[in-house]
Amino acid sequence: MAEAGKNFSTTRISRAGAWLLAIRPRTLPAAISPVLTGTALAVADGGFRLFPALAAMGGALLLQVGVNLANDYFDFVTGIDTEERIGPLRVTQSGLIQPSRVRAGMILSFGLAAVLGLYLVLASGWPVVVIGATSILAALLYSGGPYPLASHGLGDLFAFIFFGFVAVCGTYYVQALQITRLVFLMAIPVGLLITAILVVNNLRDIPTDQKLGKRTLAVILGPRRARTEYILLLAGAYAVPLLTWLTGLVSAWILLPLLSLPLAVAVTRIVVKNADRVLNQALAATARLTLIFCFLLSLGLALPSLSLLPIFWR
C-alpha cells in the first residue's frame, strides 16, 4: 500500500530529505513562538533562567516534531491520507519512509521530550509533570486513539489551549516558578495565531476530509465560516496587545507587533480569495507571521526591563 503512493518526484528524495519532510520544519514556529513569549515574560519579571529556558525550547521542538510524525503515521493508518491529498507530501502515505520507522521516530521524539521534561521537573518542581504528560497525551490523541480530536472538530480548541496557555505559561513557570495575570493574557494572542495556522491547513483539506468523514472544525463550519474564523483569530491576536496597553498593564512597547500588520493583511487576502494548493502558501505565510508577531511581542515585553535600554534614549 505504501508503494502505491510513490510517484516520479518521490524517487528523487534522499533518506535525509524524506525525514526532513516528515519533521516539517515550516511548522516549527508553532513550537518556538510560545517559548519565546514565555521567556520574554520571565525576563521582564526578573525570573529568567537560561537552562530551564533552553530545555523548554528543546522540549517544545521535540513535541512538535513528535506531533508531525504522529499525524503522518496515524493519518496513513486510518486511511485519511490518500493520493488525493493536496497538502505537503506525507512520507508514510507516499512510501518514502516505512510506517514502523515513522512510528519509531514519533516515540523517540516524545521520549527525548520526556527526558528534558525530567530535567525540568528537577529544576522547577512537580507541576512540570502535569504540563509534560498532558502535552504528550494531547499530541497523541490529536490524530490517534479511539477518538481523534482532529477528526471531531476539537483540533482548534486544543491547539489554542496547548500552544497558547500551556506552552506560554509552562515556559514562564519553569523559569519564574509562578504564573501572573499578564502571562495568561499574553498566551492568548500566541494561541490564536497558532490556531490560525491550523485553520488554513484544515480549510485547504475540506474537500478530501469531507470524503473521508474527517470532521475538522473547518468541515463543520464550511469554507466561508472557516475563513471568518481565520480573520477573527488574527484580529483577536492584534487586539490583545492594544487592549493591555490601553488598560495600563504594560508600556507602549507592547505595540511592536503592530509592525507585522502588513503581512497579516497580505496573508488574509490569500486565505479569503484562494483555495486548494494555493493555501499551502498561506499556511507557510501564517507560520511566518506567527513567529514575527511573537518575536516583536517578546521584544515589547522584555525591552523595558533591560538595563541597557536607557542607553538608546540618551
Q: Which secondary structure elements does this structure contain, and how are they paired or packed?
A:
Blueprint lengths: L14 H9 L5 H16 L5 H28 L13 H4 L4 H26 L2 H17 L11 H22 L4 H24 L1 H7 L4 H5 L1 H24 L14 H13 L5 H24 L12
Helix pairs in contact: 2-3, 2-7, 2-8, 2-13, 3-5, 3-6, 3-7, 5-6, 6-7, 7-8, 8-11, 8-13, 11-12, 12-13
According to CATH, what is the topology?
A: Farnesyl Diphosphate Synthase
Helix content: 55-70%
Structural class: mainly alpha
Radius of gyration: 20 Å
Element order, helices and strands? HHHHHHHHHHHHH
What is the percentage of strand-forming residues? under 5%
Instruction: Give the strand tally.
Output: 0
CATH class: Mainly Alpha
Give the N-to-C terminal Cα separation: 68 Å
User: Major beta sheet, specifics?
Assistant: none
What low-confidence regions span 5 or more consecutive residues with pLDDT below 50? 1-8, 308-314
Domain unit count: 1
What is the mean pLDDT?
A: 88
Can you characterise this structure?
This protein has 314 residues and is mainly α. The protein has a single domain, classed as Farnesyl Diphosphate Synthase. 70% of the residues lie in helices and 0% in strands. The chain contains 13 helices and no strands. The chain has helices spanning 15-23, 29-44, 50-77, 91-94, 99-124, 127-143, 155-176, 181-204, 206-212, 217-221, 223-246, 261-273, 279-302. Helix 3 runs antiparallel to helix 7 and helix 6 runs antiparallel to helix 7 (155-176). The protein starts with 14 loop residues before the first helix and ends in a 12-residue tail after the last helix. The relative contact order is 0.13.
